[in-house]
Amino acid sequence: MSDNMFLLAPSGIGPYLYMVCAFDLQTLSPYNVIIKYADDTTLLVGQHSSVDISQEYDNICSWSISNKLTVSTGKNKRNCFSSAFF
Fold first, then answer.
1. Beta carbons within 10 angstroms of residue 64's beta carbon
2. What's the whole-model pTM score?
3. How far is CA 79 from the centre of its chain?
4. What values do phi and psi take at 21, rounded to 5?
5. Opening angle at CA 82, ends 80 and 86, nearest 5
6. Residue 29, pLDDT above cutoff 90
7. How many alpha carbons lie under 13 Å from residue 42 in its C-beta half-sphere?
8. Has domain 3-78 been given CATH number 2.60.120?
9. Which of 28, 16, 75, 33 is nearest to 54 (CA)?
10. Which residue among 51, 60, 77, 85 is least enclosed by CB atoms within 10 Å?
């Protein structure tokens, strides 16, 4: 399994308000990473994580609902990266 990256962009609020609201958004696993910039969020889930990308995505969706934000599913992207061994 390769590393996964999931992009999330809540809509409807400006970048400053999003940064304030997203302060408490955390991953379930300490080995996964959330990068927040303006009103965009990037989730990085490694191949050896104990929590898979589906669980992390559900966590973000639950956080969004509790903070009255919407996950913009039309803007979501999933990219898989791996090392090629020949």
1. 19
2. 0.68
3. 12
4. -65, -35
5. 145
6. yes
7. 7
8. no
9. 28
10. 85
pLDDT in the model for residue 34: 87
How far is Cα 1 from Cα 30, in angstroms, rounded to an integer?
19
Bridge partner residues of 70 (DSSP)? 11
* Six-digit token string for 77: 């992207």
Domain residue spans of the chain = 3-78
Amino acid at site 44:
L
In this prediction, residue 6 carries a pLDDT of: 46
The type of residue at 24 is: D
Please tell me the chain's helix, strand, coil percentages from 3-state DSSP, rounded to the nearest 5: 30, 30, 40
Dist CA 16 CA 22 (whole Å):
10
Q: Which residue matches tokens 């992390």?
A: 56
70/1 Cα distance (integer angstroms):
29
Residue type (1 letter), 80: C
